[in-house]
Amino acid sequence: MCLLEGIVMSERPVVATRRRLRRDGLALAALLALVVGVSGCQGDAGTVARAGTGTGTKASASPSPSPSPTAPPTSAARVATNVKAKGVPVDRTVKVTAAHGTLRSVAVHAATAKGKGKPVAGHLSGNKTAWTATTRLEPGTTYQVSAVAVDADGVARTQRSRFRTQDLTLDQQTYPSFVPVAHQTVGVGMPVIVRFDVPVTDRASIERHLKVSNTAHQKGAWRWISSTEVHWRPVHYWKPGTDVTVTADVNSVPAGNGIYGQLSRTSTFHIGRSVVSKVDARTDQMRTYIDGSLARTIPITTGKAGFTTRSGTKVIVEKFRHKRMDSETIGISHDSANGYNLDDVEYAMRITYTGEFLHAAPWSVGSQGYANVSHGCTGMSTDAARWLYENSKVGDPVEYTGTDRPMTLDNGYGDWNLPFREWKQGSALS
What we know:
By secondary structure, the protein is α+β, with helices and mostly antiparallel strands. It has 3 domains: 78-164, Immunoglobulin-like (Sandwich); 170-272, Immunoglobulin-like (Sandwich), CATH 2.60.40.3710; 275-420, L,D-transpeptidase catalytic domain-like (Beta Barrel). 16% of the residues lie in helices and 36% in strands. The protein has helices at 2-39, 43-53, 203-207, 382-391, 420-423; strands spanning 78-81, 95-99, 102-112, 115-119, 122-124, 130-133, 142-150, 156-164, 173-174, 176-179, 185-186, 192-196, 210-214, 220-226, 229-234, 243-248, 254-256, 259-261, 265-271, 275-280, 285-290, 293-299, 312-315, 318-326, 341-350, 357-360, 378-380, 397-401. It is elongated.
C-alpha cells in the first residue's frame, strides 16, 4: 500500500505538470493563432510576392517606399512664330505670338560662329501677346529666336527656334548711291538724287522707304527719271545755309522682279550761298547774282545755227580746271568743218550731259557780247571764266532764255524745267 500510495502520490505532480504544459500549449497556440490572424491582412501580398519570386517561404515585410519628388508645373502658355525653318523672304516681318498667356521677353538675333550676332529690333504689343520686328532681315542668314511666355498662374515657358533667310546674289540686290556726296556744299538748285545699280520695277515699294528732311522745312517731292534714278526737289530753290538729310531705308525692301534693296543708307549735305546766273542768248550777256544781288555782267557767246544752245534752267553738274573737248564725243568728225579737238580748255563747268559747258573761250572774245559762234557751249573771256569758276559750285542754277530749243528733264539736272504741280506727278505714290 505504501508503495502504491507512493506511486499515486508521485503521479499527481506529473499529471499537474502535463496539464500545465497543455494549458500553456493552448495559450501559446492561441497566441500564435492571434499572430497569424493579424498577419493575415498582408498574407495575400506576401503570397503574390512568393508567386512572383517562385519561393515557398513567406516574404518578409518590405519597407515603405520613399516619396517621389514633386514634378514642376507645366505652363499652359504657347509660343508661335510666323517664319518657317528655311527660305524665309528677307522682307518678311518676323512676329512672335503667345496663346494662353503673355510674352515676358523675346530676343531675335543673327547666329554666327562666335555666338550671337546683330539683333533684330522689335516691340511688344500693349497686351503683351505679340512681338513684332521693326527691322528687316539679311539674306542668307541664320537667326535664333528665344521667347519666354507666362500663363495665368505665372508659370513660364521658354521656347527657342531657328530659321534661315533666302540667299540672294548681287544681281538680285540693288544698291543705292547718292548725289550730292556726303558733306558736300552745293548750290541752291541741287536736286537730291538716288541712283540704283539694278533697275527698280516696283517703284512705289522703294519710294515709300526714301525720305528727305531739311533744316529749312522746305516741302518737295520725288520724281522717277528712269528705273535706276529718282530725284527729289523742293518747290522752289533751296534756302542758303540749309542742311539736307536723305535716307534710303531700302535694305531688303522688294524692288520688283525678285530684286531687293541691298543696303540702307543715310547722307547729309549743305546748301551754300545762292549763286544764280542768267544767260540771254539774244543779247549775249550773262548776269550773275550772289545772294540775290547782281555781282557781275559778263559778255558771252552761245551756240550758232545748227548748234543752238538750249533754253531753260540748267544746273552745274561738275567742274574742271582743265578739260579736253573733242567734237567726236558728240558725233562730229575731226575732219568736218565743225570739228575740233581742244586739249586744254580752262575753267569748264558742265551743265548738260550732252556737252554744254560754261568755259573760257579766248578764241572767240571778238564775238562775245555780239554774236553766237559756239557749238552750243557758253564761252567767255579767260578772266570772266576764272571769276565765274571761283564763285560757282556744283548745284548752282544757270537760267537760259532767248532760243527756241528747250532744255529737257533728263539732260543733266533739268529738274527745274517743270512746274512743281507737274513735277510731283512723276512720283510713284502720286
